[in-house]
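ok, trying the design again with the full structure, not the truncated one.
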């Protein structure tokens, strides 16, 4: 990611998300996604996929060709599947996405390490791919889970759930953590706990009210942007504007 970001001079990750499409519109979805990716590629360093495309297109039927297109354009491809199950199931999920060419998957730390996340990290190590963990999500309800005060199972010390996740992400060797751009104060706290080694990926800029400057100043390394670019009158111009804003704010 660092190398790509340097080459592209961009810290922006495109979230290639389209709203629900009816049966007729779905026929054009792959072409639409491919064309948008083509337009925006010069301005971003990676592309993040979500269920918006894997559900209607399938991984090997359609999304894999977009991943290949992203790679040809010099972008990395992240699968935002928020893996969240027992180890055997997580292994199958990660294997399928890595097999389709994804460079990293996003996983949910609430499942814990043994028989939860560890199997995903094992697959990633075997295939030389990445695992990014959620630490504090961008929506309001995140406070009910990530924001809870908990007693750490190992140390018995009271802490905030998101700080415990940040510490564990460092210990487990995660390739990044996701923290909402909407909560720059949480980005700042998590950056302090994590140090400079583990990059923070911040979604929530634009459509969810987060700001480029606030997220980067608080310590985010990459900004994930979907609707602000995808629904813009000119997605390439919007992506370039965000790219420049981020370069100035860094
Ligand atoms: P948008 O810029 O349109 O709000 O899209 C943000 C993207 O990041 C969506 O794919 C969403 O599912 C994802 N995301 C998020 O918004 N907040 C989080 O905390 C974690 C996410 O993965």
């Amino acid at each position: 990611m660092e190398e790509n970001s340097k080459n592209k001079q961009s810290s922006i990750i495109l979230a290639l998300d389209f709203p629900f499409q009816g049966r007729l519109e779905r026929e054009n979805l792959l072409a639409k996604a491919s064309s948008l990716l083509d337009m925006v590629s010069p301005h971003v360093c990676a592309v993040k996929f979500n269920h918006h495309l894997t559900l209607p297109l399938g991984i090997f039927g359609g999304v894999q060709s977009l991943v290949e297109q992203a790679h040809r354009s010099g972008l990395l491809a992240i699968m935002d599947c928020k893996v969240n199950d027992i180890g055997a199931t997580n292994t199958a999920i990660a294997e399928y996405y890595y097999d389709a060419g994804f460079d990293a998957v996003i996983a949910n730390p609430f499942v814990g390490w043994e028989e939860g996340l560890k199997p995903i990290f094992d697959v990633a190590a075997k295939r030389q791919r990445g695992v990014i963990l959620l630490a504090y999500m961008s929506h309001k309800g995140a406070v009910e889970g990530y924001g809870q005060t908990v007693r750490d199972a190992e140390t018995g010390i009271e802490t905030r759930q998101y700080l415990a996740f940040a510490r564990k992400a460092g210990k487990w060797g995660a390739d990044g953590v996701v923290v909402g751009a909407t909560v720059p104060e949480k980005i700042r706290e998590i950056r302090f706990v994590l140090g400079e080694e583990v990059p923070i990926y911040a979604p929530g800029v634009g459509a969810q009210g987060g700001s480029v400057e606030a997220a980067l100043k608080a310590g985010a390394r990459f900004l994930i942007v979907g609707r602000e670019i995808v629904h813009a009158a000119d997605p390439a111009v919007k992506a370039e504007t965000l790219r420049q804003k981020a370069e100035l704010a860094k």
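Keeping the full-length input from now on. Strands lie at 12-15, 46-49, 76-83, 104-107, 130-136, 149-151, 158-160, 176-179, 200-203, 222-225.
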